[in-house]
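Cast an eye over this sequence plus tokens and walk me through the fold:

***
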Amino acid sequence: MTQTLPGTDSARDGEPILETENLVKVYGRGETRFDALKGLTFGIQQGESVAIVGKSGSGKSTLMHLLALLDQPSAGVVALRGEPVSGLKAKEVSQLRNRTFGFVFQQFFLNPHQTVLENVTLPLKIAGVGKAERNEQGMRVLEQLDMGAKAKNRATTLSGGQKQRACIARALINSPSVLFADEPTGNLDSATGDVVEDILFGLHRDHGITLVLVTHDEDLAAKCQRRLMMQDGEIVREETGRTAQEAAA
């Protein structure tokens, strides 16, 4: 892996879109020291669906935050398309994250004072896209998710399922290469959760988006092509394809 500024082209054949080398994350010092991640080395291929599974405190959310460039490791390397991101300035990391990744969170993180369309188009606004263009793109994505009629509604008027659809629309607005979903069905009833699952896996299947899920839900994890089981800051087991599905049965 070479120390150069990552680009935005598709991953080269056979090369992971995301990879880590001896990734370490430590919180605190002395008696309060907590080793959240203990030297993880692995990769995620372009177009792959991966579930990161484990109990609370296992390190799965910490790992997602490092992969998504939302936090910095204490040691080790995170690379995007074979190129380490360490050493980039904060503004460069923010721009790289905004144009490469989409995020769907359990807590939604919608601004209650903005309309659905304003929430969805926020990444485009950050990227400097003009209002007319970002509204056009926002409406296109909302209509694809059957949310066009809610574009002018305040986020507070939406149901849980509608809020999650709005979050997915926001995650897709920049045509991301990687979609991170942290407990995406955790606040939803089972029927609504099934709809959200269908949307996420449909995006992965039909558009080739790399899907990285963090979840406690074994059934959801088993739908992924690969499942990484975490415990005490380490990947203790890896399952692929049918193995993952049988493990959750």
Observations:
- Residues 124 and 130 are 8 Å apart (CA to CA).
